[in-house]
């Protein structure tokens, strides 16, 4: 497997799922962050497990720990779903993040040993570990052509975060790169 095959897969699979991606983009308000996601509402709509991206969703890019408001939200999710039904599905699962979760949310698990998003492998593993069908899993991601696309490919429910956590102060070049990447993804989805 080539190291960047997931990038090519994003464009290929993105073209195949262009209508669903466009609907997702058009139906997601511009200010959507995780704080607008009420765990009780998600659960009552049939979601039984959550797969969470890290960068942009729980913290600014490259941060070793989630932001305080993300921690509060994850505690609410843990109370509704149970910690063992919440998974971290990040293309960058660093050791520092694993240690932090082990100390603060020991029941939540990282999905690893699978191909990177947009491949559906991580969500399939999430379904196996959670013991729920893929249609009962919500993938929460700030990228259309990675996590949201993986959810569409797998048959899970995508949740697109349009207002990701960013910090130009701490990581200006990385944040600028990902800001441009998110913009290009939206443009790609609108044009195809």
Unreliable stretches covering 5 or more consecutive residues: none
Relevant CATH superfamily: HAD superfamily/HAD-like
Whole-number tally of structural domains: 1
Task: Indicate the CATH topology.
Answer: Rossmann fold
Which structural category do the helix and sheet elements fall into? Answer: alpha/beta
Radius of gyration: 15 Å
Question: Per CATH, which architecture?
Answer: 3-Layer(aba) Sandwich
Give the SSE order as H and E letters: HHHEHEHEHEHEH
**How far is the N terminus from the C terminus?**
27 Å
The top-level CATH class is Alpha Beta
Oligomer: single chain
- Enumerate how many helices there are, as a single number: 8
3D structure, described in words:
By secondary structure, the chain is α/β, with parallel strands linked by helices. It has one domain (5-191): HAD superfamily/HAD-like (Rossmann fold, 3-Layer(aba) Sandwich). Helix content is 48%, strand content 9%. The protein has a 5-stranded parallel beta sheet, with helices on both faces. It starts with a helix and ends with a helix.
